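Notes from hallway chat w/ T.B., transcribed later so I don't forget. T.B. wanted the structure written out for a chain they're using in a teaching module, and asked if we could keep both sequence and C-alpha cells in one place. Agreed to drop them here.
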Amino acid sequence: MRFKDVAEYFDSIEGIASRNKMISILAELIKKSNVAEASVLSYLIQGEIDAPFRAIRFNIADKLCVKAIADAYNISQASVEKKNRKLGDLGLVAESFSKGVGRYNLKEVYLKLKEISEVTGKGSVDKKIKLLSKLLKDCSGVEGKYITRIVLGRMRLGASDYTFLDALSVVKRGDKSLREGLERAYSLCSDLGKVSEVFLKKGEKGLDKFQIEVFSPIRMALAQRLSTAKDIVKKIGRCAIEPKYDGFRIQIHKKDSKVKIFSRNLEDMTDMFPELVRGSKEIKAREIIFEGEAIAYDESSDQFLPFQITVKRKRKYEIEKMAKDYPLVCFVFDALFLNGKDLTKKPYEMRRKALSKLVKAGGVFRLTDVNFTNNSEEIEKIFDHYVSAGLEGVLAKDLKAEYTAGARKYAWIKLKRSYKGKLSDTVDLCIVGYLKGRGKRAKLGIGSLLGATYNKKEDVFETLAKIGSGLTEKGTLELKKTLDKYKVAKKPARLNSKLKMDVWVKPAMVVEILADEITKSPAHTCAESKGEGLSLRFPRVVKLRPDKKPEDATSTKEVVDMFKKQRRK
C-alpha cells in the first residue's frame, strides 16, 4: 500500500465531523491493507510508531523540524518560520513547500520513521535532521504533512483507540457488534497493533485466547460512584472497604529482576520512582503485576501530602533528589497476574488473599487497610475516620467481582468527602477549547475553559461547563502554553458542542472541577439520551490531572446520575 494513499485517507478523516463516517473510512482503509499494514496503521492514527506505553520518541523539537523542512526543500529557515507563523502548523508548512510525488509504500515510511526514532549518541541531532529531511524531500505534500505531525507528536486526526476498534469490527462483521470482545483484548494488552493483528488473522476466536503479558500494561479498572453507604450496601451487599488515597495510581510489572512501572494513563514511569523499583525486586514472585496508589508521605508527622506534592515526583531530572525530598509510600490494593496465572478473572477475595502473602508490613510497599462489612453505619464510621486522616474517602469493593480491566462498573464504588456538598462529588472534565477573554484575562490568554464529559458508548465528548476560576495567573499561563500544543483549526471530530470557542483543542488534558450544583442548561450537550443538557453552577478548577487520559474524564452517565440524586435530596 502506497503511503500517499494512506495520507490521503488521513486527510479525509481529518476533514469530517461524523464519528460513524470516520469509522467507515477507517474500515475501508483497513480492508485495503494486509495484516502487517493494518497493525502499523493502528499506531500511526495515534501519532505513534508502536504502542504508546513503549514510549518511542523522536525527540525532534519545532526548531529542529524547521531546519529539516528548510533542508528538504532548499529554502531558508526564515522562510519556513514565516510560513509557520501564518499557518500555525509545521505539517501544513511542509505540505505547502513540497514538490515531491511520493514513491514510498507504507512499510518503507514506517521503517524510516523508526530509524529516525532509534538514532542516539554523538551527532544524533544532525543525523535525525538529515534522515527526516531526505524523507520529506522524497514525499508528496500530503505525505509530508502527516510525517511532520507524527514526528512532532501532533497527529490531530481525532480518531480514538475505540474508533479503530469499531472499524475493525465493521471490517469483519459490517457493524460495531464485536466492540466488546475487541475492547476486552485491548484492555489486557494496551497494544492496538497487536489486537489488530490477532483479530485480522484469527477473528473472534483469537480475541477469546488473548493472554496477559508482563510489561504490557493492563488498562486500569475504574470505580462507579454512589452517594451514601446505604446505597452501597443495597447495591453489592457485604463488601470490602478500603481507604481512597489522593495519590498517583500505578501498575507495577516484575519479571525476575526486571521491573516496569506504568501510570494510570499507561505512561512508563519506571525511571521516576527508583525506590519503588528497588522495593519491587524484594517481592517474592517470579512474575507479578500488581496495582497501588503512590502518595508522598511525611514519616515525621505521620501525614499524607497533597496530590500537588505527589505529582512533583513525575519528572525526568533530579530524580534521586526528589525521592529524598518527597519520599513515597505505595499502598498496594490489587494483584492482576502472578507466576503465569491471570488473576483478573478471579474474585476480589482471592486476589486480595494472594496479595497479602506477598506484601509485608513496613517498607515502601504497604497493603491497604481493609474492613469487611454489610453495615452502612459501620461504613460511615470508617469513612469519617479516613477523612479525618486527610484522605478522600473510601472505596467499596464487591467481594465476588472480577477485575474489570478498562471498565467502569459497580465492582468498585467510591464514596468521597465532597459528597457532603450540594454537588455529590468533584468531576473530572476534559478541556476541549477556551475563550480568550477580555481585559486582564485577555492578557493571560484564557478567559474561560470549556470542559466536557466522556460518553463511552458513543465515544464522544459532551460539554458540561465553562470554567473561569480556580487557577492562579501563573497557572493560567502555564495551562495555555500546554493547551496550545493541542490546538486544532476547528471543533474536534469527537466533540458534541453547541458552543463556539475562540480556540479549539484536541481532547488531551483533564482537570478536576468543584461546583456548587448541577443545573439544566440548553447550552450544553451533556445529557440523558434526548434529554435537556446539564451544566455546572460556579465551577472552579481544583487541580490538573496529568495522570488521567481524556477517556478517564467523568462520564456523561455519571453526571446524569449525580443530577438525579442531587434533585432527590
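Follow-up for T.B.: The longest strand covers residues 287-298. Might be a good example for the class.
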